[in-house]
């Protein structure tokens, strides 16, 4: 694997950063995971605009235009191409931290250079597109114990990791999270959709959840396929009684869920709306 670190290309094993890097000490940074299907980045513009928004939200100035971010991502793909054929399914991890200071101090240091790191890794192929052939996930449910700026794709992921690990320890694939009003926010590394009486529902964007790029692609795909979709508050009680539940992320695309916290969803198999959504997704994923 070839990595990019501070304007240099190197073998991933050779990439080294200072222990005083604020990404290491404070999780002071933002990141992106951009899926690459057969050499083509998915929703590249949408990923770059979330990155630049995140950098500006945390007041981290990097001397790169959106065009330069896009070409960096494409260069990481190119540097990691094996042979003539692009690998089938990979993703680019792109991480920007505030950089290394000479001491440990909370306030932003003046005059340091941000750390920009990127590499490529293999991801599983997208799920099969027929409902009979896809595996469903069983997931847990928990009150969201993270911070109040979940719209930022922050590298401080301890809250997410602890929620994810709690699921893993029970043999579950994810944890769906809800706020103090028992409204669903998202999952520890995915966005959440539910199908209720023929309408696909997903929680509205606010500070409680990440504006997932797959979420955006799925909403676009549903709209272009004339499938009703609503961004609205979704309570835990509605979620548990819904006909279908899906989790979306760059590495999972749309994953159907069969059980939430021991409650069977629908008949416990991927549903008809899931099949329509996953088939509609291909028409938009390279356009955003
Ligand atoms: N929500 C959280 C907390 C995430 O970490 C992620 C992705 O890793 C998502 C949602 C899904 O976002 P995307 O579709 O951009 O991968």
UniProtKB/TrEMBL annotation:
Cofactor(s) essential for the protein: pyridoxal 5'-phosphate
Keywords: Aminotransferase, Folate biosynthesis, Pyridoxal phosphate, Transferase
Pathways involved: Cofactor biosynthesis; tetrahydrofolate biosynthesis; 4-aminobenzoate from chorismate: step 2/2
Catalytic activity: 4-amino-4-deoxychorismate = 4-aminobenzoate + pyruvate + H(+)
EC number: 4.1.3.38
PANTHER family: AMINO-ACID AMINOTRANSFERASE (PTHR42743), D-ALANINE AMINOTRANSFERASE (PTHR42743:SF10)
Signal peptide, first to last residue: none
One Gene Ontology MF term: transaminase activity
EC top class named in words: lyase
Similarity comment: Belongs to the class-IV pyridoxal-phosphate-dependent aminotransferase family.
GO cellular component annotations of the record: cytosol
The name this protein goes by in its record: Aminodeoxychorismate lyase
GO biological process, one term: amino acid biosynthetic process
Protein role: Involved in the biosynthesis of p-aminobenzoate (PABA), a precursor of tetrahydrofolate. Converts 4-amino-4-deoxychorismate into 4-aminobenzoate (PABA) and pyruvate.
